[in-house]
Design goal:
The protein has 219 residues and is of the alpha+beta class. The protein has helices spanning 123-128, 161-168, 171-180, 184-191, 201-210, and strands spanning 2-14, 18-21, 39-42, 47-53, 62-74, 80-88, 91-94, 98-100, 106-111, 130-137, 144-156. It has 2 domains: 2-156, Galactose-binding domain-like (Jelly Rolls); 161-210, no CATH class. Strands 1, 2, 3, 4, 5, 6, 7, 8, 9, 10 and 11 form an 11-stranded antiparallel beta sheet that branches.
């Protein structure tokens, strides 16, 4: 299981009701929780702002959950009503609206159990998704402010039958490592003599983990 935070990566569209304040006066103001220096602020009208996101790594191809998070507060004397939205090629999904009654910042999360249009999240859908922040009810003194907007993805690396066959090619030296408590260096030396070799130290460590090898020594 890997938890990855995807920060906003660009402005896709911004309603006139919203204004970037501070910093580069663009999406970068929502990347870090700088509550006073950089943020996005609404006027008394309704409006939606949409942003692209960083991409999830190519090996994280099993998506367990997709969760939006925004850090926001009201700045008018009246409450603000807002919600998160997510858009992919399958459409747009809306989270439940929230009444922003706090005059101080708080963090709010929404789990999008399925991708827009229905069905499970995939790596492709995650990487094409855009995140929105929308003010849904306008009126006098309903101004609101947001300082952070991001998505958290819980994902895993899928291992198919081909990969397990790949692992089996290393079975003899790994059994030797397990039975003789060889060091990482010794195991690496054995693997280096094989025709098929780990492509990186990360893959080497994954192989050791699959076979539950726990060498006595390390580098």
């Amino acid at each position: 299981m890997t938890i990855t935070k995807l920060q906003v990566a660009s402005d896709v569209s911004k309603d006139a009701a919203w204004t970037h304040v501070g910093g580069s006066t663009n999406y970068t103001g929502l990347q870090e929780p700088d509550d006073t220096g950089t943020y996005m602020e609404s006027d008394t009208n309704t409006g939606d702002s949409r942003f692209s996101l960083d991409n999830l790594g190519p090996t994280q191809n099993v998506i367990n959950s997709y969760t939006s998070m925004y850090r926001s507060r009201r700045i008018g004397v009246s409450n603000s009503t807002v919600r998160a939205r997510v858009t992919t090629s399958g459409g747009t999904s809306n989270a439940s609206t929230r009444v922003m009654s706090n005059a101080s910042y708080a963090e709010y999360t929404d789990v999008f159990a399925t991708a827009p249009g229905g069905g499970a999240w995939t790596l492709t859908l995650v990487n094409e998704s855009d995140i929105h922040y929308e003010k849904t009810v306008g009126g006098a003194n309903t101004e609101t402010r947001i300082t952070t907007l991001l998505v958290t993805v819980d994902s895993d690396i899928a291992t198919d039958a081909g990969y397990y066959m790949h692992l089996i090619s290393w079975l003899p030296p790994l059994i030797a490592a397990a039975s003789h408590a060889l060091s990482f260096r010794d195991v690496a030396a054995i693997l280096s003599r094989l025709k098929t070799q780990p492509s990186s130290r990360e893959e080497f460590c994954r192989i050791l983990d699959v076979f539950r090898v726990r060498p006595r020594y390390s580098f």
